[in-house]
Amino acid sequence: MKRDGNLNSFWQDTAPLHLPLSKTIYSKMHFDAVVIGGGITGVTTALMLQLAGKKCLLLEANKIGFGTTAGTSAHLNSVLDTPYSDIIDKCGKEVAKKVAGSALEAIQIIKQFVKKYKIECEFEEVRGYMYATDEQEEKELNNIYQAIGQVGLPTSYTSDIGIPIQFTKAIYFDQQARFNPLKYVQSLLDVYIKNGGRILENESMQNIDDEEGNLKVVGENFTFTASRVVHATHTYTGINKLNFKLGPYRSYVLAVELQNPGDYPEGLIYDMKEPFHYLRKASDDLGDVLIVGGEDHKTGQEENTQYCFKNLEAFVRKHFAVKSIRNTWSSQYYESTDALPYIGALSTENPKEFVATGFSGNGMIFGTLSAKIISDLILTGESPYADIYTPLRNSPIAGFKAFVSENINVVKRLIGDRFKKETMDELAALSPGEGKVVSYEEESLAIYKDDAGKVYALDPVCKHAGCIVQWNNAEKSWDCPCHGARYGIDGAMLNGPTRLPLDRFDLTEMK
Ligand SMILES: Cc1cc2nc3c(=O)[nH]c(=O)nc-3n(C[C@H](O)[C@H](O)[C@H](O)COP(=O)(O)OP(=O)(O)OC[C@H]3O[C@@H](n4cnc5c(N)ncnc54)[C@H](O)[C@@H]3O)c2cc1C
Questions:
Q1: Which residue ranges does UniProt annotate as crossing the membrane (predicted)?
Q2: Model confidence at 506, in pLDDT bands (50, 70, 90)?
Q3: d(Cα 73, Cα 369) in Å, to the nearest integer?
């Protein structure tokens, strides 16, 4: 199966799609709910609504699992990436307690689905560990320890974290879990289809209009109506104030075979670095691997993304005897400005559209929780978590420097413009596999040369808010530094918030 990057994740290799999906376009039909986005959030939401008797359509621009759900590391942790000490500072103790309770509930929802539908996805309840390696980190760890206790999650200090990494202080917390995300999502999808749920893949939502009490959902090849629409696209696609309250980040992951079988951790492990490393074990027919992640940075703001893999590999080799590296991949997440995700109605004027975004590195948990909150809101109008996570709450606007500097006036150019061969030859003096934004007669071009020497030229102006995209040499994509929209070498949309591909320039003359 394909993912929104050039590199294959461990999950892609272990969980091929097994259900033949319908090719019906369903145009002009009416649905109780259209769920846009076929990751863990969309699939779980569509399933919950379908099981409750609603007629649902799950719409996916690519293939189910194409987004971050195939690029995750799949820790199921109630001790979230944002420390509870920060959540208490920003939102208060009572909210932080509810957040902790909601995270535990999400793990239980996954556990119950696994049990009820006998899902084989290597779900296992395990312990989580966090460790410090110097005095400064110890101080921070003590704060986190206190805060975890304050929100009602049991935690203790420990002298054993189960891996051969030296540390000075460590804590553990129970009731965490791990699983294979794609096996899980594909099994939920099977249940959804068996219960009458419909799926439309390889078709993208391009517009939604409120029309005579219903929502008209429009794509290139379809128009259908819905009573409710759920935007489960990881970030809201299109222009919305939420775009200005979310920061897009890339994170890097390796699946590593170790020489010593005793070195694989049973638990979920986190260090205290900035950005921190996260470790867990996973298994397939070939054996165990250590899944290690880290090296996060703002999307489109790292010149050489290959370095991130090099640094991560150096971290692993420093602590473990490595037999082989089976997979390297990176993926995208979105962080909100007040540490909590945005889940619920999109606006007061339009309570028929729902959104689920800003999960940071906890989208297995928050995606599942979104499904519960949004399906409760659609089915009953209420959710005990509605107030905490509402997208309508006051939260700060992100002051991203890059957005201000990059969001310049954009000169619109015509697709199909042709460029003089001689000039382009010069511009295209790139190594095979290299991409670059270059200037051409006072304008800019995003050019990429593939391994066979074919040159692709795109308008580098992001279709979302007009920033200039940057080349990502690890995933071979064009990434926007402002709101995280990403495009393939041919300009195809990989990640929102864009709804459209980049404009292409015709280089047929170049052959
Ligand atoms: C490296 C990394 C490690 C992570 N590790 C963890 C972890 O250990 N634990 C954890 O809980 N979380 C983790 N996360 C976060 C988590 O993986 C994500 O938050 C989660 O997968 C998001 O799921 P989703 O269904 O909301 O979005 P996605 O899986 O991204 O799915 C969105 C889908 O929407 C589709 N789409 C977009 N626009 C349109 C459109 N216009 N029309 C139709 N379809 C559209 C896309 O094609 C895509 O398939 C990690 C994230 C990263 C980057």
A1: none
A2: confident
A3: 18
Which pLDDT tens digit goes with each residue over 283-340? 999 999 999 999 999 999 998 999 999 999 999 999 999 999 999 999 999 999 998 9
Q: List the residue whose alpha carbon is closest to atom 20 of ligand 1.
A: 363
**Is 367 close to ligand 1, i.e. is its CB under 6 Å away?**
yes
Residue 219 near ligand 1, beta carbon < 6 Å: no
Q: Is the CB of 145 under 6 A from ligand 1?
A: no
pLDDT in tens, 342-365: 999 998 877 899 999 999 999 999
DSSP state of 35: E
pLDDT digits (tens, 9 = 90+) for 366-410: 999 999 999 999 999 999 999 999 999 987 766 544 333 333 333
205 lines ligand 1 (CB under 6 A): yes
Strands (E), 408-492: 435-440, 443-449, 455-458, 470-472, 477-479, 486-487
Closest ligand 1 atom, residue 219 Cα: 42
How many angstroms does the Cα of residue 333 sit away from the middle of ligand 1? Answer: 7
Distance of alpha carbon 446 from alpha carbon 478, whole angstroms: 8
HEC-encoded secondary structure of 64-114: CCCCHHHCCCCEECCCCCCCHHHHHHHHCHHHHHHHHHHHHHHHHHHHHHH
Neighbours of 120 (CB within 10 A): 11
Q: Is the minimum distance from the CB of 187 to ligand 1 under 6 angstroms?
A: no
For ligand 1, atom 17, name the residue with the nearest CA: 72
Question: Is there an atom of ligand 1 within 6 Å of 3 CB?
Answer: no
Which of 3, 9, 35, 73 is the pocket-test mutation for ligand 1 (most atoms within 8 Å of CB)?
A: 73
232 by Cβ neighbours in 10 Å (0-12 / 13-18 / 19+) ranks as buried
**What residue ranges define each of the domains in the chain, with the CATH number in brackets?**
124-177+247-336 (3.30.9.10), 402-510 (2.102.10.10)
CA nearest neighbour of 31 among 162, 241, 216, 265: 216
Ligand 1 atom showing the smallest separation from residue 366 Cα:
11
Residue type at position 21: L
